[in-house]
Amino acid sequence: MYTLTFEALHEYDAGLPGITVPVELSAGDASVKVTAKLDSGSTYCVFRRARGEALGFDIESGVPQWISTATGSFLTYGHNVTLSGLGFALDVMVYFAVDEWYNRDVLGRYGFRQQLNLGVVDYEGKLYIGRYTA
Amino acid sequence: MQEQIVINEVGAFIPRTLFGHKEQIVTELAHAGVFALAEVAPPPPQIRRVPPIDLSRELQWLKEHRHEYLEQWVALEGDQLIAHGSQAREVYAAARAAGIKSPFVEFISTSDELPFGGW
Questions:
Q1: Between the CA of residue B20 and those of A34, A92, A109, B113, what are the distances in Å?
Q2: What is the rounded CA–CA span in Å between residue A51 and residue A71?
Q3: Could you tell me the residue ranges of all domains in chain B?
């Protein structure tokens, strides 16, 4: 038997595709709210270009990062933001897709999942959250 | 036996005796300016507790009205539609002009009805 303890509970609509998580991205004085998908397969937190532009970023001035998918690859640029969601906030680098055809907002490993302990009871639409401590 | 990393105008030489000593290798290379130390070992982000973000009314609105705004961006505040259109930039601008500091703007895609495949 193993035991994990969590600090917060987020109940999501199990009828929607994926696990939907309301988050807020902030940079300087600008903020946007987004419903992102928790993506266990994504290395990074990747958002649509429109989100970055709404925060005032010159997308292509960020840190370039190619992302590989099952159907090909696409270019993103990383920018530092405050990412808030599920009752926690952290200052991290997230990536914005260059191409506007990219139509997902996802929470990946670096910048989100690695900093939190997550427990999923998908049948009930329950996501338990706690801070990772070494 | 060579036990020091040698860095010269040609490149960097790591002796076999240091293989497996990742921290020492990384630190020495960083101190020699091969790469910035901050890139090697970024400190873990500090996590703060904040109030959760509630978009339940916005998501309910999307459920009830999505078919009316297919292939458009919509700006919502609670269950109120603030702006809509084909260009995200304009919809964000309209939401901010309406006094919303942190707007929720979503694109209503016909493909959203398909199961999400992750990566």
A1: 43, 29, 26, 49
A2: 23
A3: 6-39, 56-108
A56 touches chain B (CB under 8 A): no
Pick A33's closest partner by Cβ from B46, B103, B112: B103
Residue B98's contacts (CB-CB under 8 Å, 6 or more residues apart) are: B75, B77, B82, B83
Instruction: Please report, in tens digits, the pLDDT of each residue of chain A (134 residues total).
Output: 999 999 999 999 888 888 999 999 999 999 999 999 998 889 999 999 999 999 999 999 999 999 988 888 999 999 999 999 999 999 999 999 999 989 889 999 998 988 899 999 999 999 999 998 87
Sign of the alpha-carbon dihedral angle for A120, A122, A123, A124: positive
Residue B69 makes CB contacts below 8 A (sequence gap 6+) with B84, B108
Contact B92 A85 (CB under 8 A): no
Cβ atoms of residues A115 and A90 within 8 Å: yes
Kindly identify which residue of chain B lies nearest to residue A24, measuring between CA atoms: B53
Cα-Cα-Cα-Cα dihedral of B56, B58, B63, B69, to 10°? -170
Assigned CATH for A21-131: 2.40.70.10
Asked if B118 and A23 touch (Cβ cutoff 8 Å), the reply is: no
ipTM for this model: 0.91
Contacts of B1 (CB under 8 A, 6+ apart): B15, B17
Tokens describing residue A58: 């010159």
Indicate the pTM of the whole model. 0.80
